[in-house]
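Input record, target 12 of the design panel.
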């Protein structure tokens, strides 16, 4: 038996087929990308390859989001301190 993939839009299902089976659309023998940062956008039947888009790792996205939030808090505090200094003059 060999593993084949039934493609449906940007998703797929793994199937088993006999070794000598001819694989035709909507099935392919080409393994989909397994990288967690890759998002499958579809399958290019003309060139017989997966269409995938690389994304930002979730951990990095969360980290950058927290850093941006902390930066905004510090900026707001700095603005408040500047306003207090101007008012003390």
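The sequence produced for target 12 reads:
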């Amino acid at each position: 038996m060999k593993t084949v993939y039934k493609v449906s839009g940007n998703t797929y299902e793994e199937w088993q087929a006999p070794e000598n089976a001819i694989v035709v659309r909507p099935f392919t023998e080409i393994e989909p990308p397994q990288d967690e940062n890759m998002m499958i956008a579809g399958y290019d039947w003309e060139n017989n390859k997966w269409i995938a888009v690389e994304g930002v790792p979730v951990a990095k996205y969360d980290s950058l989001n927290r850093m941006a939030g902390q930066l905004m808090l510090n900026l707001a505090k700095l603005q408040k301190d500047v306003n207090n200094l101007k008012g003390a003059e």
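The chain has a mean pLDDT of 93.
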